[in-house]
Design a protein that fits this description.
There is one protein chain. By secondary structure, this protein is an alpha+beta fold. The protein starts with a strand and ends with a strand.
């Protein structure tokens, strides 16, 4: 198990990482998700030993490796720009780390064959990496990182340079490869969909701190704070006064009064934020929301309908732009607190 304990790092006098702690088990893929500047890549470099933290420790299987040099930590890294050696062919690129570690030529050949089979590049050994597609180059980079059997595999925005279709295809491949390799993996991205597709667990970073830790399902369905909900784009955020009741609470907003699911103990009149999920609304002649349609976007299984009041909802049909729709909520708003 990899264990990160109380990591702190400043940049130009400002805190970049503040008391960051988490674990990654063997075979687990943990995704560091956050906007640019949240400290994701710096944290990765600290774990790899490429940067020093001002405070904190890194452990592998209970052993403190904070002061261990990068090449002795057995960390594999995959970057967005592949970082392949253009003068070496595919097999030579994959074998590079093995050669540096003193593997015998026969063992190098065997291991290169194994990892190229894992990433489905068997037969590419003699190909020039500059002749490969972006997706193929990224698979070579992944094979090279996995070849020395690292304790931890770290991937820093590995699909950022690929187009959408290729990114989705390679995401499926990455999931398969990570499961088959049974390696502890840390995956850095700012893309919420990518994180949900690849991770066993998501750590959301904001201003150098982990503000949410959970499975993709848990994080999406219970963001836990206004900032996380807004960053993930889980739905409409409404602000208003909370009015607790004996049976259920009510949120009084500028758009009207709505039922509110609230686990907190807010005094009457407390201003709070809440999620109105776009899938929680349906057309109904006596709905709580009436508004004119300003835009419609088809999104595979539904239509994303934008309204003049600033809300958006998912509907099974496409109303006309300019049409007034009447909507009823199928579920209460979810309170996110103050």
């Amino acid at each position: 198990m990899l264990e990160i304990v109380h990591i702190r790092k400043t940049y130009e006098g400002q805190p970049l990482l503040e008391d960051v702690s988490f674990t990654v088990a063997r075979g687990e893929t943990v995704c560091l998700l956050g906007p640019s500047g949240s400290g994701k890549s710096t944290l990765l470099r600290i774990i790899a030993g490429l940067e020093e933290a001002e405070r904190g420790q890194v452990f592998w299987e209970g052993e403190d490796i904070t002061a261990v040099s990068p090449h002795r930590r057995r960390m594999g890294m995959v970057f967005q720009d592949y970082a392949l050696f253009p003068h070496l062919n595919v097999a030579e690129n994959v074998a590079f780390g093995l050669r540096m570690q003193g593997w015998s030529p026969q063992d190098q050949q065997t291991r290169v064959r194994e990892v190229l089979e894992l990433v489905r590049l068997t037969g590419f050994e003699a190909r020039r990496v500059t002749d490969l597609s972006g997706g193929e180059q990224q698979r070579v980079a992944l094979a090279r990182a996995l070849a020395p059997r690292p304790h931890v595999l770290m991937l820093d925005e590995p699909l950022g340079a690929l187009d959408r279709a290729l990114r989705e295809e390679l995401l499926e491949e990455l999931r398969r490869i990570l499961r088959a390799s049974d390696v502890a993996a840390i995956y850095v991205t700012h893309d919420q969909e990518e994180a949900a597709a690849i991770a066993d667990r998501i750590l959301v970073l904001h201003r150098g701190r982990i503000v949410r830790d959970g499975t993709p399902f848990e994080v999406w369905n219970s963001p836990g704070s206004l900032w996380v909900a807004q960053f993930l784009g889980v739905g409409n955020i409404l602000f208003g006064e909370c009015h607790p009741g004996s049976g259920s609470s009510v949120l009084k907003t500028a758009l009207g009064e709505f039922p509110l699911s609230c686990p907190h103990c807010h005094p009457k009149g407390t201003r709070v934020g809440a999620i109105l999920r776009p899938s929680a609304a349906e057309e109904h002649p006596e709905g709580e929301i009436r508004a004119r349609v300003t835009d419609i976007l088809f999104q595979r299984e539904h239509f994303r309908v934008s309204l003049e009041n600033g809300l958006y909802v998912f509907l099974s049909r496409a109303p006309r732009v300019g049409e007034t729709v009447s909507l009823r909520l199928k579920a209460p708003l979810e309170c996110l607190g103050i």
